[in-house]
Write a structure and sequence with these properties.
The chain is an alpha+beta fold. 30% of the residues lie in helices and 29% in strands.
Length: 101
């Protein structure tokens, strides 16, 4: 089975280990949320601080309800060799090995 994803985020390991976490989202999820492939939600302009505070709960809830991402843990070497960056479309092949013959 082949799955299509878009790279939405790349983070260093929080503990300082030599790994990189690559977050992936399905293209249909990005289209449904109206989000760019770069993971940045477009927020309307607020004319006052009061408007911002009134809509803050809505913005936080929309981010929490945004959906799920798939995260890959890659070594620094694997990440550098792959050459991927935020916004790239990638494919993952999911293969079940026949080890029980």
């Amino acid at each position: 089975m082949r799955k299509e994803y878009i790279v939405v985020r790349i983070d260093a390991a929080p503990d300082g280990s030599p790994y990189v976490f690559v977050s992936l989202a399905e293209p249909k999820d990005l289209k449904e949320k109206g989000q760019s492939p770069f993971g940045v939600q477009v927020v309307s302009n607020f004319t006052s601080f009061e408007d911002l505070m009134k809509n803050l709960n809505k913005m936080i809830a929309s981010q929490l309800m945004g959906g799920f991402t798939t995260t890959l843990k890659l070594s620094i070497r694997e990440y550098e060799e792959s050459g991927i960056k935020v916004g790239d479309k990638i494919y993952l092949d999911i293969i079940k090995p026949d080890i029980y013959k």
